[in-house]
Fold these 2 entries.
Entry 1:
Amino acid sequence: MTRARDAVTSPETSGDPVAERLQVYDFLLREAELADNHEYGEWLALWQEGGRYLVPANEDDADPRHHIFIIFDDYKRLCDRIFRMSQPGSHSQEPRSRLCRVVGSVGAPRPAGDGTPGAMVVDSRYVLDEIRRGEVRRYSARQRHTLTRDADDTLKILSKEVFLTENDNPLFNLTFIL
Amino acid sequence: MTDDITLRPGTVDGTVYTSEQVFEAELERIFRRTWVYVGHESEVPEQGDYCLKDVAGTSLIMVRSNDDVRVFVNRCRHRGNALCQFPRGRANIFRCPYHGWTYRNSGELVGVPYPSRDEQLDPADFGLAEPAAVDSYQGLVFVRLLGDGPDLIEHLGEARPFIDDFVKASPTGRIAVRAGCHKGKFRGNWKFVGMDGYHANFTHKTVRDLQRKNKPESNPSSRNTDRSTNRSWDLGNGHSRLDFSNTREPENILGVGLSDDPVEADYRDQMVATYGEAAEEVMERGQDPHVHIWPNLQLIGVHIRVVRPVSARLTEVDAYPTALEGASDDLNARRLRSHEWFFGPAGFGQPDDYEIFERNEVGLQTVEPWILLSRGLGLEEPGERGMTWGNITDEIPQRAQLKAWQAAMGEAPTQAAATGEGEDSA
């Protein structure tokens, strides 16, 4: 974890694709760790203001103007999500789920297709076990991060899209970070 | 048990919510013999469009054939193979992959391979099976799988005006189901999905926290207290309603169209063009009918909610957000975003409902299963045409639901529920 934190703030990677790829990989592991541990404040701090957190329903390439999403958070709603999850009385997470996700199949970062300066896109996958009230629920997903660097060269999330393999199945509560 | 429910007024034996034996009887006596909601005609807009629907374990094909919306049992008449596998598609014919039997999308059996070995078989006798009754109201398609009963209009009764309100939110008077579906589930009984005006400030405590954070001057809890002027309604026939018309949500979660920004102003102009002076009232009423249509349909906010019981202790719920035909894409996108705020497996409200339902199911596994549904009992006010109403926090909707349940279930299965005889649960 310490190593991941150092790597994220390293300014040394520009022009070195191997170092950059490793830094992005460490960033994804760090994000997964915070999500599994319900460290909401620190997880939110990984985001660039204006970021978007998207989980489509039914199909991976759903158009949000015409299709319902499981999560469609602009930055304000993302902050509201974290606020709500942090309040006592968040019944669906009392007690909290124990979470363990394995992040893998991490692709090479590539420049963002929309031309956002300095933004890069990285695809990865995860398998996530949720244990709550004696029951194990397993989820898997592809995820796509669009990352940028802030003034301190720290990686920040511009968008995170999660394509649940099960997004067209009836789903139990998903009130943890996907 | 029929007697037992009324033996102690306002109480019910909790095994009604836990017994698999009762559940099997519910499938037979309620879900197969009452009008149940299947889908909306707009889900199959073009000739040959079909979609699969599950009604209490029966797989149905809803298909547009020769301009009619038809409903068939998704089963080959030969050996019972499920015909359709894709949740939706377009087809002029359905061919069973097992032995090649072929049906038109209007149901006729038109092809039986190698017929010389069964010349007695008359294809006219083996078209696709249909429910005993199929009918629609405002594009909402209902079926009664078996038996006789009242026609659909009679069944809908006093719930009808609220279906009208729901579709009249559109400047064309038509809604469309084309934005996908939030599919949820919980480990609890299907009858927990009702109309409850009492739970909001407790179950949704964090939503209230959020509303107060974003709008400190608001008092969002006031709409769901014993001092509120909002009402709960028994509409008859098992239908019920929460009437929030006296206080709207401080954060607009249940519809759009009442602010002055350009997108909503355009919508308002369209509504005035259609409804004239009544437009404001039409928009107000169309925001959130909040009606439960017995046994498996609710219209809440912008969405059609379908309750799909799987077992006594597992329920799936499909929520279809609707688009307003004729309104702008921007407005309809806002409806989607407003829906996602509260609903869906990761929304800010619904997950806590399902969590509470699961805890309720746990709590009912006990030797002393009686629960109370007595709030407001004896305090009901008479409404028009036999309806009754009370305070928003009264358990009028729960009692309305159980009255219809009792009427459908009769004596035998509820006797088992009362005694616990043949129970598979501890």
Entry 2:
Amino acid sequence: MIGTLLIFLWIILICSAFGERICGLKQQSIENFILSSCVGLFVLSYTVFLIGVLGWLYKWIFITILWLSFFYYHKEIIAICKYFLTKFRKINNIFPTAFDKLLAILYFLAVIAALVKALAPEIGNDALAYHIAHPKIFVESHKIKAIAYARESLWPYFTEMLFTLGILLRGPVLAKLFHFASAVLLSMGIYAFGEKHFMRRSGLLAAVIFLLTPAIFTQAGYAYVDITLTLYAFMSLYFFYTWMDNKKLKNILLCGIFCGVCMSIKYLGIFIFICMTVLFLHYYFAERKNIIKAFTYFTIMSLLVCLPWYLRSYILTGNPVYPLFQVFFKNAWDMPIGIACNLAKNIQNLIFLPWSITMYPKTFGGEQVGILYLMFVPFIFLSDRIKNFKVKSIIVFAIIFAVIWFLTSQAARYIFPILPVLAILASLSIYGIFRLSRAKNFAIAALFIALTFNSALAFYHTRDGLKVVLGLESEESYLMRKERSYAISKYINENTEPSAKIFTTEPRVYYCDRNIIYTDGYIACNKLSDVSFNELTKILKKDNFTHILLAVERPFSTSAKDISPHMGRIIYQTDFIENTPEDRRYILLKL
Amino acid sequence: MLSKREIVKKRLAESVIFIWIIFVGVAYALIFVIPKIKEIISR
């Protein structure tokens, strides 16, 4: 664990030093550290992509690049370390009041909780299905390539490139730490934003509100990509406002680059581009200033940065967003885009959205945004900054994104990109309430009750991971308890030939070391949705599949008696796994 | 020195804050927190 953490810090320092040099930053500050780290991670991700596409994904190549960079940028690295040590020594000056100290303690508790989760073995569904499962395949084949029958392998994979590096150098835990780093960098960015554009204390409070959002600290411990998307969306916004202040070309280029990175992380990033375009228009109509040149630079940079991903997909399949949009592309799959919208798309549901997403998180996929946004953001009119154009502008950004989100995929984690700005609005509202003497103590009490509840949730969610991180439980025992697919994957790894080709209805394939293909992709790609299971087994045999792994969920009760002998021979089956949230059993068939 | 109108506005804002925070807090406790705690205890 310590070794992985040290390698992670080493890579972050190299990225930051590199970013500092190419951005020409001379002074050390929190803002410069975040900017340089984001630029460094951006270059690192594209370096892995380029080297991977060329088929040179070997550990020694990256170790060499990193060591050379380390020696080349050692002065910057030393300066960064000295800056943070000095900051640490003057920690009392950074948090002067008891209120600030309490916020700082809660902030560090949330960081520790998320770190513990990040250091434990991966158990996140999408991470095990593709976020780290595909990087594992890239590393094994030393090449970044399209994976047969995988829906996602030609999607924009910016964060997955960092995961690939993590798996190549050390393993999945290092990969997870890159997503954890996004959460920490983002909270520091929120602090710097508040300090720069409003007041330092509002930045600190906003950073704490954001990091103590249950959905954020929970996801920061998984190898997902949503917080990285949120980080780069926020950085794009950050440099939009910096450009508004000083009109320097460099800032609008950075705004465009970071927006382009959003579109390189996942398709949802296109919504960020739309929202940023609306912000340019809002700025134009509010201030009546010429924005055409700046908007052109912004658009060119955004498109240039994300171009490699869409171009790759277009060259390989003729569809830049393969396998989506059957309406436009013949080779697209017959599949819905995004997840099902749980709320009907009407004005009433849109108005009550903040209430619904706070009170009924299960309707939106289960991630909890917590109570603080609903409790405090409505009082933004009390803030003395309400007439500030930036405040109006971030309200516009939040509303436009929320409306697009409401009309497309209503999953709570897809709304993360507006949480940093909502945290800033909540923080400004709270300082607005503090100006009302009678309400101040009441608001402080409500704020700390909510933050303490969120902290308790954070530690509740990390309690299992803590045992593994402290060495009180083995990784194997943890995975046996917590990860439904681990035991069956272990059985397959130990009892099948390395050349086995397995067809599976279990999307979590990371722990299985065989050529394992998930049902949905195979069926959609070969247009087999109307074929019976009996017919399917014949097709699979012809296609050299050796096994079928059936994951059977309650109330569906496919059992041994439903499998006729000519389909295949049951070689292993489990009972329903009751101690994981997902209640399912496995049947392994030999064809 | 605040005018009478400003004092009334301030008191009104304070009342709205009290009512809203209590309303949201109680609703959150009843709809989300208590069922969540029950769920945790029952595991």
